[in-house]
Amino acid sequence: MEFQKQVTLIIKSENHFIYQSQALDLYSIKYSPNFDTNDFFAAARLLIQNQQQRHEDLTIENYADLLLTKEFKEILGIINKGIIIKSNSQEKVILINYNASFGFKSEILPDIFKQYIPKDIKKRYALLITEPFYYTKFVNIMEAMHLGIYKEEDENWEVYLVMEHKFPDLQGLDGIVITGSSSAAYDLSEDWKEPLFEFLREADKLKIRILGICFGHQVLAHCLGGEAQKMTHVDRMQVGRKAISTQFKWKDYVIENLNVYQIHGDFVAKLPKDTEVIMSTDHCQNYAYKNDHILGVQFHPEFNALILLYIFRNSTNPLREIYAKDCYESFKQGYDHQQIIWEFMIQFLKNK
């Protein structure tokens, strides 16, 4: 199964809108998540290729190197702040403020923008970033990896750097996403861990919807009656695309082998209280768990081949070449199931 999605940009530049031509056609791009990581990355690629007049096909390696540039990260920051006008599984329309040097300028409002009526009361969600190397490697990239999946119309998303002891007000909060991290959930030498534990315990008491990803999955277990540990039963981190044996039902399909992306050296050895296992692998029994308001997954819904290559092309790990080879080998197997996984995550987080 090869899925495609379309992203359309309403580009506002000062008092004008930017169209492709005098026909007032908006800029749009169709993408597959086996190349572009999600809607926001596809939109950023569309902008940078038009801005730089680069219309040749990118290899995934060229794309990974593009992510290293300051310009691409700045454009991702603009997309992150955009207003979602329309969002469904096939299409997303984003309004952004961007001083483009390309296209046809007009004061005429796009038809789809005329039809947009924002709600007075919006859902409120929080993204908790837990990566210590955020400032050196992941500025705007980490936000885009998650917001490009979860951010929909009539929602306010707040971003907090947990390492700086910053947390949202739980009052009126509809959901929380906890990111992955190069840190370990069980390493309490870092002074931001205990405040994070206390925050999550309070959110759990209020039964706020929480999605924990990789480190987030481990830290939820570690602070809610379970335990995270280092994986000593394998010889190195588990990286790449992994096929999980499931009977995952999605629309008219039954996915017997769900392909997910992973990079982890720790695991949940003991489940948090009142949760059940929903996915297991040969190297990790508690690969995903849930209850009525918590979902923890060891894999990365926000990753694809591009992000894994970006990480290892930007790594000082002495095994980086081995991990890159592991990734390339894993990419040869099966189809990309990211859009299926995104729908599952969104439905849980937003109780749809």
Blueprint of the fold:
Blueprint: E1 5-13, E2 16-19, E3 27-31, H1 39-51, H2 60-66, H3 70-80, E4 83-87, E5 91-97, E6 104-106, H4 111-114, E7 123-129, H5 134-138, H6 141-150, E8 155-161, E9 175-178, H7 193-205, E10 209-213, H8 215-223, E11 227-230, E12 238-250, E13 253-264, E14 266-270, E15 276-279, E16 288-290, E17 294-297, H9 305-313, H10 320-331, H11 338-349
Parallel strand pairs: 1-5, 7-8, 7-9, 9-10, 10-17
Antiparallel strand pairs: 1-2, 1-3, 2-6, 4-5, 11-14, 12-13, 15-16, 16-17
Helix pairs in contact: 1-3, 2-9, 3-6, 7-8, 9-10
List the main descriptive attributes of the protein structure presented here.
Rossmann fold; 17 strands; 11 helices; six-stranded mixed sheet; seven-stranded mixed sheet; GATASE; ChyE-like; 352 residues; Glutamine amidotransferase domain-containing protein; 29% strand
Please characterize this protein's 3D structure.
The chain is of the alpha/beta class. The protein has two domains: about 5-115, no CATH class; about 125-230 and about 265-315 and about 340-350, Rossmann fold (3-Layer(aba) Sandwich). It contains eleven helices and 17 strands. The protein has helices spanning about 40-50, 60-65, 70-80, 110-115, 135-140, 140-150, 195-205, 215-225, 305-315, 320-330, 340-350, and strands spanning about 5-15, 15-20, 25-30, 85, 90-95, 105, 125-130, 155-160, 175-180, 210-215, 225-230, 240-250, 255-265, 265-270, 275-280, 290, 295. The strands form four sheets. The protein has a seven-stranded mixed sheet, with helices on both faces. A hairpin with an 8-residue loop joins β15 and β16.
